[in-house]
């Protein structure tokens, strides 16, 4: 079989592996008003779908990371795409709320391996000078998924219903599975892969931010930041379309467009922040900047609700996409600077488990608060407090570095 160099095909596979798992949840979020009405559930029950998804993802990342270290890239990628397909199929059958819960959980387990296995592919198959830039692109897979689902699910749901849309969406993971089998078999391993993330001599700025491979305290600190940020990210992502529809009288399609815009900004932000990291910027300093920007976004959400002025909502959406949605690329970039490929899946699993724990907490928290008399006002205040804690943790990390 002809051997190929790393190119667009491999990058598409990496981006797809990261983005395909959340596809179902973003689709459900974009059609949340229709699903709540169709199933006769309340906001808290709808939030439980996201909580189930991310709780399963956190469990998978925390328990299966070392197992992933011992399995092939092709095997893990196949598992990701097949589980994502099955989740969409289950969502498409008329089985009621319980079946939808099971589908959400399965889509969560599909998110157990992608960060670890894609980071390992970068270390073992992609030249060092390309890696950090590729991290930004492949981590934007989540926001590409958010963009695709937020635009297509509401439109298709008007024609074939939200269940029919879920079934049609199975073409995405199945197509990516075929591309994966073709690509990973042709892109060879590098000659020396069992080394730390930066094979070439790093710049002085990059060296100053490099962690020791065995520095578990730093890895756990990154996981803690990912958890806090994750609470705010998914509390916002899951309820953003519903907020736009109920509080600012947006249509179902326009409400979905708010999440789509956040996804577009998030893609751009992740690629941009990866380039900033590639120039040797300190990870903790960048995390502080992102936390402060996310706080500004919360203020804009509260102002939009108080005034009913749509431009404030779009401002909040942009700030959310540019900040909170860009955190994962910073966390993964720091890992790539410091962790050997032999333990990349398990180390990435720890940090990703932290993020998904936050993802699980956020929607449930927001759903309970929105269903209470405090409504979205108290919900946004709670999100703001979470980002404030991110700011404090980032400041602590900066001082520890110095």
UniProtKB/TrEMBL annotation:
The way it spans or sits in the membrane comes to: Multi-pass membrane protein
Annotated TM spans? 46-64, 76-106, 155-179, 217-240, 252-273, 285-306, 312-336, 348-370, 376-398
Keyword list (alphabetical) reads:
Cell membrane, Membrane, Transmembrane, Transmembrane helix
Localisation per UniProt entry: Cell membrane
A family per Pfam: MFS_1
Q: Per the database record, which ranges form the Major facilitator superfamily (MFS) profile domain?
A: 1-402
Q: What InterPro entries does the annotation carry?
A: MFS (IPR011701), MFS_dom (IPR020846), MFS_Efflux_Transporters (IPR050189), MFS_trans_sf (IPR036259)
Protein name per its UniProtKB record: MFS family permease
What organism does this protein naturally occur in? Nesterenkonia halotolerans
């Amino acid at each position: 079989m002809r051997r190929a160099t790393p190119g667009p095909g491999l990058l598409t596979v990496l981006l797809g592996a990261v983005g395909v798992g959340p596809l179902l949840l973003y689709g459900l979020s974009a059609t949340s008003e229709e699903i709540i009405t169709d199933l006769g559930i309340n906001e808290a029950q709808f939030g439980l779908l996201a909580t189930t998804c991310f709780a399963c993802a956190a469990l998978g990342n925390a328990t299966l990371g070392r197992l992933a270290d011992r399995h092939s890239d092709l095997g893990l990628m196949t598992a990701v795409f097949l589980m994502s397909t099955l989740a969409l199929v289950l969502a498409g059958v008329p089985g009621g709320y319980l079946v939808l819960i099971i589908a959400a959980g399965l889509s969560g387990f599909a998110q157990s391996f992608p960060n670890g296995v894609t980071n390992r592919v970068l270390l073992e198959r992609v030249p060092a000078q390309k890696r950090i830039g590729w991290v930004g692109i492949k981590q934007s897979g989540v926001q590409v998924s958010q963009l695709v689902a937020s635009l297509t699910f509401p439109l298709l749901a008007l024609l074939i219903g939200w269940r029919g849309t879920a079934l049609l969406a199975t073409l995405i993971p199945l197509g990516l599975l075929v591309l994966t089998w073709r690509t990973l078999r042709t892109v060879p391993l590098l000659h020396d892969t069992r080394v730390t993330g930066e094979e070439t001599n790093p710049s002085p700025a990059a060296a100053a931010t490099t962690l020791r491979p065995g520095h578990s305290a730093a890895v756990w600190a990154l996981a803690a930041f990912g958890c806090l940020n994750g609470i705010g990210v998914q509390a916002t992502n899951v309820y953003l379309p519903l907020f736009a529809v109920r509080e600012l009288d947006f249509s179902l399609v326009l409400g979905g467009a708010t999440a789509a815009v956040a996804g577009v900004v998030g893609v751009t932000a992740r690629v941009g922040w990866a380039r900033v990291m590639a120039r040797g910027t300190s990870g903790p300093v960048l995390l502080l900047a992102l936390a402060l920007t996310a706080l500004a976004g919360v203020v804009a959400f509260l102002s939009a609700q108080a005034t009913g002025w749509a431009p404030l909502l779009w401002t909040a959406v942009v700030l959310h996409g540019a900040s909170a949605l860009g955190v994962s690329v910073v966390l993964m970039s720091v890992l790539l600077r410091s962790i050997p490929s032999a333990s990349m899946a398990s180390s990435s699993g720890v940090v990703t488990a932290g993020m998904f724990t936050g993802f699980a907490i956020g929607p449930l928290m927001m759903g309970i608060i929105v269903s209470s008399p405090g409504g979205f006002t108290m919900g946004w205040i709670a999100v703001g407090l979470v980002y404030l804690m991110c700011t404090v943790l980032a400041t602590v990390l900066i001082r520890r570095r110095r």
